[in-house]
Amino acid sequence: AGAALRGVVSANAAAFASDPAPAFADSHAARHVSHWAVAAELAARGIRTGCGVTWGIGNVGDMLARVPAA
Question: What secondary structure does DSSP assign to the chain, as a single string?
């Protein structure tokens, strides 16, 4: 049961990652190299995390691991 749940959670996270992916790509193109700069860009666009909160460096790091490199 645990493996199945982890699979579902991972699939949901991967699906959510496609929503802010263009913002991550734009942020990368603008040379925003710090997690704080990326978080500020996402906040400026009104994009929330999957839990509905504002972005922090931990959320950005987790998401960058899921978003394909630009």
Answer: -HHHHHHHHHHHHHHHHTTTHHHHHHHHHTT--SHHHHHHHHHHTT---TTSS---HHHHHHHHTTSPP-
For residue range 12-43, what is the model confidence (pLDDT) as tens digits? 666 665 567 777 778 777 777 788 988 888 88
Rounded to an integer, what is the distance from CA 70 to the centroid of its chain?
Answer: 13
Q: What is the dihedral of CA 26, 36, 10, 69, to 10 degrees?
A: 40
Evaluate whether 52 touches 35 at the Cβ level (below 8 Å).
no
Residue-wise burial string across 4-30, b where 16 or more C-beta atoms lie within 10 A, e elsewhere: eeeeeeeeeeeeebeebeebbeebbee
pTM exceeds 0.85, yes or no? no
